[in-house]
Amino acid sequence: MRRISSGSPFEDKIGYCRAVVAGGFVHVAGTVAAGPDVPEGVVDQCRSAFKVIEGALKEAGCGFADVVRVTYMLQDRTEFEACWPVLAETFGDARPAATMIECGLIDPKYRIEIEVTALAPAQG
Q1: Global confidence as pTM
Q2: CA distances from 4 to 19, 20, 28, 68, 120 (A)
Q3: Is 102 in a helix, a strand, or coil?
Q4: Is residue 26 part of a domain?
Q5: Is the pLDDT score of 46 beyond 70?
Q6: Can you give the residue range of the structural domain that contains 65?
Q7: Total number of domains in the chain
């Protein structure tokens, strides 16, 4: 098992890591927009979260084409459709199984949280 940190202060504070490589998969924790200035709009927050996820996947040796499962969590389900072009652009023809959940997030400023599972590169 391998743990990947993004360096977020919340990883130590809450007791988690950005991703874990185990059992042939890369499990990326739920990810919100990052940085000191969180964008207000759901689309920009979606892009920001994908940048953080992309960094974790790269460190694990894979990318969005290896994602097999994605979960989108939004405070307001009516905002999800605005994200569809970003999702299509991110995954292209490598379409993962997907779930969208409407729920409360850790802070009301966040509009979307994204969690993915990807195939880990073969160990050889």
Answers
A1: 0.94
A2: 5, 6, 9, 19, 13
A3: strand
A4: yes
A5: yes
A6: 2-119
A7: 1
